[in-house]
Amino acid sequence: MVDVTTTIVITRPRDIVARFSADPSNASAWYVNIKSVDWHGKPVVAVGAKTDFVAKFLGRTLRYTYEIVDFVESERLVMRTAQGPFPMQTTYTWVDDPSGTKMTLHNSGEPSGFSKLAVPFLTSAMRRANRNDLAQLKALLETQ
Q: Exposed (0-12), middle (13-18) or buried (19+): which is 65, by Cβ within 10 Å?
């Protein structure tokens, strides 16, 4: 099982950090590996909304569909793959911090087939990517 949790403090108010990072339309601005995002229907961050992502990860192009399964504005967003290389869940949480907002990014999933053999490598690569992505988000939001 892949299970990676990464946290960062961003010196911006929680509602600003949450509003920007929860919107899949902004993903390619702060996720280094995400190349495109396309909504199924109206682009609204709400339970049941689906988006198609195209990403480059470990030299491969990945295409997957995420469905929002839980959303509490400025507190939590949970997305699960509805279609993709392996089942994955991504959770964002935001809490107030004396310096601004503490954001946590948690990815978990159960690779199958060949990917299952590479779990330690996938976990390490995902942890590194998540740290880079959150650093990019922090830099982006703190300069606005």
A: middle
